[in-house]
Amino acid sequence: MARKKFIAGNWKMNLNAAGSVALAAGLAKEAASLGAVDLAVCPPFVYIPQVAAALSGSAIGVGAQDMFYENDGAFTGEVSGAMLKDVGCRYVILGHSERRHVIGESDELINRKIVKALADGLDVIFCVGELLAERDGGVTNDVVARQVTIGLSGVSGEQMARVTVAYEPVWAIGTGRTATPQQAQDVHAMTRGLLNTLYGQAVADATRIQYGGSVKASNAAELLNQADVDGALVGGASLKVADFVGIIQGAM
Ligand code: PEP
């Protein structure tokens, strides 16, 4: 089944206000020629309104890098899905490996956030992926299957139209070390098989599965040529217009 590729940039905790706006404006200028691919950028929370303004009128969506599962109240430091919608977000990244392994988020917490984000009308980029020790120990598929199964608990087949799964092997994120196209394809195919078991073939066929982990212009095309690789979640190489556009061109 032909799935439109989806490339998203995760700016992580980088840039400042001026740099965020300049990057967004630079991408907005290029966007018209890149329409064959769905595009999003995910700035730090505080720059979302300015980035959304710089991208308005372009086809590039705006996302956040996290959110909390309550609407409002005494949750110091947290941001709700309604707040993200209020400032122009369409997407939210949930379960990113840095949230899992630096901040300590569990599968169950990530699941609560996913369920709430979908209820709030956000589209979710749901990240999964194994640690190096888990890959070396031969349990990659077990880890990813557990993360997917718990993360999507309570998510309906209908809601899956607003979920993108991002397979991001932790050992490949920000390390310059990329999974081989075959390693990516193998985990993507396993994940699609699991989605088939959980939701049936129509949902499994329609769900986009991004690869993430040191994607750059020079390796994007061969990764994105794999049958079950439907896009990329890009960290470091999303911080410069030319680098990000190079990846998008690799997807076209
Ligand atoms: C990411 O932030 O999700 C990511 C994959 O980062 P990088 O592209 O820098 O490895």
Concise account of the structure shown:
This protein is of the alpha/beta class. It has 11 helices and 8 strands.
Describe it for me?
There is one protein chain. The chain is of the alpha/beta class and about 250 residues long. The chain is about 45% helix and about 15% strand. It has 11 helices and 8 strands. The protein has helices at about 15-30, 50-55, 80-85, 95-105, 105-120, 130-135, 140-150, 180-200, 200-205, 215-225, 240-250; strands at about 5-10, 40, 60-65, 90-95, 125-130, 165, 210, 230-235. Strands 1-2-3-4-5-6-7-8 form an 8-stranded parallel barrel, surrounded by 7 helices. Helix 10 (about 215-225) links the parallel strand 7 and strand 8 (about 230-235). Helix 5 (about 105-120) packs across helix 7 (about 140-150) and helix 7 (about 140-150) crosses helix 8. The two termini are about 15 Å apart. The protein binds phosphoenolpyruvate. Phosphoenolpyruvate binds near residues 12, 173, 214, 215 and 233.
Tell me the layout of helices and strands:
Elements lengths: L5 E5 L6 H15 L6 E5 L5 H8 L4 E5 L16 H6 L4 E4 L2 H7 L3 H13 L3 E6 L3 H5 L3 H12 L11 E5 L13 H19 L1 H6 L2 E4 L4 H8 L6 E4 L6 H11 L1
Parallel strand pairs: 1-2, 1-8, 2-3, 3-4, 4-5, 5-6, 6-7, 7-8
Helix pairs in contact: 1-2, 5-7, 7-8, 10-11
Bound molecules: phosphoenolpyruvate.
Classify the secondary structure makeup into a structural class.
alpha/beta
User: Which kinds of small molecule does this entry bind, naming each only once?
Assistant: phosphoenolpyruvate
Percent range of helical residues: 40-55%
Q: What's the helix count?
A: 11
Strand content: 15-25%
Secondary structure tally: strands: 8
**H/E element order:** EHEHEHEHHEHHEHHEHEH
Q: What topology, given as strand order, has the largest sheet?
A: 1-2-3-4-5-6-7-8
Oligomer: single chain
Stretches with pLDDT under 50, minimum 5 residues: none
- Report the span from N to C terminus: 16 Å
Shape: globular
Major sheet summary line: 8 strands, parallel, barrel
Rg: 17 Å
Mean pLDDT: 97
